[in-house]
Amino acid sequence: MRIVIEGAGQVGSHLAKMLSMESNDITVIDPDPARIRALASTADVTTVQGSPSTISVLKEAGCPEADLFIAVNPRKDQSVNIVSALLAKKLGTRRVIARIDDEAYLSPENKLLFKDMGLDMMFFPEKSASDEIVDMLRHTASTDSLDFARGKLQLTVFKLDDDSPLLDMNVAEFAHTVKAMQADADFRIVAISRNARTIIPTFDTTFKYHDYLYIISRRDGLPALMKFLGKDQVDIRRVMILGGSEIGQMVAERLASQKLDDVKIVDIDPQRCRQLSEDLPDEVSVACGDVRNTDFLQEQDLRNYQAVLTFTGNDEVNILSCVVAKKMGVQRVIAQVENLEYIRLAEEMGVDTVVNKKLITASRIFKFTLSDKVRSVRYVSGTDAEVLEYTAAPGSRITKGILKDVDFPRNAIIGGVIRGGDSFIAVGHSHIEAYDRVAVFALPEAVKEVDRFFR
């Protein structure tokens, strides 16, 4: 696929590196020569220096022949993304998508307006991240979660602590134990993350201390799963947000609408605190101070909050603040970490969940490089794999026999199936039918092959 990316900032550079590894032909436009040089030295991409809203630059980048144009210019005013995407569409690019910084653009009537103009998709990374964080606070027993078909199937991530009943048990023993449980204990382990490596398990794979297990279950099987793992759901009523960034403000607004007992946001900048006090609902209290100061956090009664979320704009501060909060007894800590190399470190230091805007954005855009049978693509914390939801096409390879006989890619696994109003966990003798919605967990090298099974 021929892809043009407008913008060589953090998001654009990550997308360029990721998509170039999928055998795509990538060209990146950016007006900043330093960003262009930095990207060219680390990724196998073609670069064009120039203004992304200049027609001659768009033509030089190959927009008239491109399959996909991704506008992710890092400028503060991101209206240039919409302009360049629409110009690319008029020049002949098949599909165009643009990063925006105005939530109002995402209202149904405005999305229809931009669709009529030729814009195939708009995305707002900060809003996507805030939506995921608020959802995470509803699933406190796991480190991450993902719903399919409005919760008919759920993928949850659990960390194995030193008291876990699964330690030194293998997958076959786990399956036997599950079978002996009550009928609603319907779940399957689809992946294991261990020492920064993702494993698609086989029956003899043994669980180890500090493994992250990716388990898919029916909604009615989740309570039995948590009971079996010894995990308790915590009703989060008091939340402290460290860092008054755009994401921090969005999360505070969402939490205020849920009528929690206490939502507090903290920032070091007095001017930003005044702005937050004016903009946020009365249900949110604002405190001004340095979150690196443990005495200040104690004065803010941090130890009596059930969840702490960190969005200071500094990865190190976000991680260490979560570690401090955890040591003070806070039950749930979530950190925004933009440096990909820090994600595993943060998890090893005890951060419950890590949020990364680049990865959230990349997973949404990756969908556009696959067939039209993929309904959604999601990144899940702690793994480099993708979670995909497909609709099986009539006559596709996946419908040609039971799963153990269709030669499904080795580095991928089907977790569950939604058929009409019913859902079930997939096993070797399951048969996928046309129009089934199918949840797939796949390592990057298997995604393209998986895609061919559903066409």
Structural description of this entry:
The chain has 455 residues and is of the alpha/beta class. It has four domains: 2-123, Rossmann fold, CATH 3.40.50.720; 136-229, Alpha-Beta Plaits, CATH 3.30.70.1450; 236-330, Rossmann fold (3-Layer(aba) Sandwich); 360-453, Regulator of K+ conductance, C-terminal domain (Alpha-Beta Plaits), CATH 3.30.70.1450. It contains 15 helices and 22 strands. The strands form four sheets. The protein has a six-stranded parallel beta sheet with strand order 3-2-1-4-5-6, sandwiched between helices. A six-stranded parallel beta sheet has the order 14-13-12-15-16-17, sandwiched between helices. Helix 9 (246-256) links the parallel strand 12 and strand 13 (262-267). The radius of gyration is 23 Å and the shape is globular.
